[in-house]
Amino acid sequence: MSIYGNYASYLPQILEDTLAQIREIGQAYQKQNGQKLYEHLEGRVKSEASMTQKCQKKNLPLTPESALLENRDAIGLRIVCNFIDDIYTCIDLLKQQPNFKIVKEKDYITDAKPNGYRSYHLIMVVETPFEDVRGNKPGKYYVEIQLRTIAMDTWASLEHEMKYKHDIKNPERISKELKRVADELASCDVSLQTIRQLIKEG
Ligand code: 0O2
């Protein structure tokens, strides 16, 4: 039996619908402003194995309630932007969607994690036509959105890969280097933002 129970089959559809809505936001923005709102958009339903592992780690029972209520990233999206400003524009536009309700925000861009991780995390509740784990139909589901620049995304992928390599000989040195690179990339993001502003001003 899936940890997502009877709700497993709804999750890919909710992901697709949410992706489609965000694509529409991006297209409308580009039409109006003549530039891309984001560079790319991706999403995934967390695999049952990863969700099971996460629940076990948190000592939660292996139930749909744990997977869909206690954890709120069964459905996850990532919006990767060219510029830092675009991230905040995206957030404003997401907040204007009547069927998206933002319930939690973490700004790891303003307050980077000590290891150098930068990203903006949103947890939102989306209204869906499906029954939810509380028995409501139409039901509400949590969706996690991570918003980052290309530089932040590149760094996070590399760091994520390192976390899963357990045979690294000098992890302290690598963590220190990664932190240094994260700060350099953050500085480049600010410079790129400034250059775009200068070009805009003519
Ligand atoms: P995966 O495999 O990417 O899904 P949660 O852990 O979700 O219950 P918490 O602690 O509030 O809640 O999470 P937070 O801080 O919002 O981070 C959630 C996700 O952000 C992680 O999901 C990662 O995807 C990403 N993330 C957070 N910190 C780091 C980091 O230091 N490095 C990298 N590369 N990614 C990070 P999962 O479930 O941990 O992993």
Automatic annotation (TrEMBL):
GO-annotated molecular function: kinase activity
Keyword Ion transport: no
Keyword Transferase: yes
Pathway membership: Purine metabolism; ppGpp biosynthesis; ppGpp from GTP: step 1/2
Domain RelA/SpoT residue range list: 43-170
Family matches, as InterPro entries: GTP_Pyrophosphokinase, NT_sf, RelA_SpoT
An individual GO BP term: guanosine tetraphosphate biosynthetic process
Protein name: GTP pyrophosphokinase family protein
Alphabetically ordered keywords of this record: Kinase, Transferase
Source organism of the structure: Lactobacillus porci
Superkingdom assignment: Bacteria
